[in-house]
Structure prediction request, 390 residues.
Amino acid sequence: MSVDQVDPGRLPWRLVIALLAVVLGATALVMGLRGGDRSPRLPSDAVTQGGIAVYGAYVREPATDTAAAYFTIRNIGDTADTVVAVSSPVAKSAMLHDVGKKPMSDEGPMDSGSMVPSPTVVLEPGDVVTLQPGSGHLMLDGVTGTIVPGSTVNLKLVLEHAGTITVKAPVVGLTERAPST
Amino acid sequence: MLRRLRSTAALLVGASLALTGCAASDQGGGVASVSQVANDSAYRGVELNPEWQRPSFTLTDQTGQPYDFKARTTGVPTILYFGYTHCPDVCPLIMGQLSAAIDAAPKDIRSKLQVVFVSTDPVTDTPPVLASYLSKFDGALPVKYVGLTGDVASVEAAQSTTGVPVAEDGGKTHSTMAIYYGTSNEAHVAWLANTNADDIGHDLPIGVK
Ligand SMILES: [Cu+2]
Prediction:
């Protein structure tokens, strides 16, 4: 195991970029990915229940027994609600990660993947939260069965007031593009 | 979105150059001039200016054998990426997009290009785990991917010498740059994990030299 010496001249500006990314990321967390449109036109795949709409769901075909699901969730009601649990019959466990993290496109070349748990997600009336690669996902851990393009995966979101919402997420193949949101 | 990505990256690079005082004098100074250069970029990925040099490190490949990165890939177009196999999010996305782009690339590139995936979670990513993972991505390609692992200190040193931020949190928070070294052993472009196959494919023939 041999490694060359790091070129000392290369480090400082990368550090500065990393710091800038952290600052931008923190700003994003404060601002969130929340919109305020109270009377939205929903996509045709939207599932609505008790003031909550979920749409644009898909699961990326896994390369291991860990998969990620993405979707948009919008509070179209008049009262706040909270996502308190997630699950899927194809996974031993499920968890939301990095919800509200700024999309990768805004963080420059030193962006990092991360896996910060988001145990609850509060949705004020009008709030829209979009999970997309690099800015939030529903992690499915210990997946079983055949999760391949052409199949669908059931995702269950439990909301404090709206109750349990089940969404059918189509599987997107490993080499396919991410559906745009 | 792509345009915004490029200009933001340029801005960050510009700002950092300005802050460290490396480049202001001969470019007329300021963020604007650097942004302008980047907007003229031939690449759809992030242009690396100045270019990055092909790094040197030796780790263990997915067959359990030592792999001297620089010796084995010198003169070969190579994409280097640091990630971990149980990443459900950005790693399968960029690996899949690389595969799609290479599969559609001109024959001279497709038949030579080497992808090297270095694990940031080498405790989990043993050679057999890497072999299984990479086989999901390189099935259609003439050049099979190389997966590298080792002890934690060695994979961290490989990241440092390459010039990416060293992964944290057991490898789960990691750089998402796929760095493309041409036959000259210099990298002029890198793709972030949200770059799609079409944009990678656009850059492959330009950065191959
Ligand atoms: Cu995750």
Observations:
- Chain B has a mean pLDDT of 84.
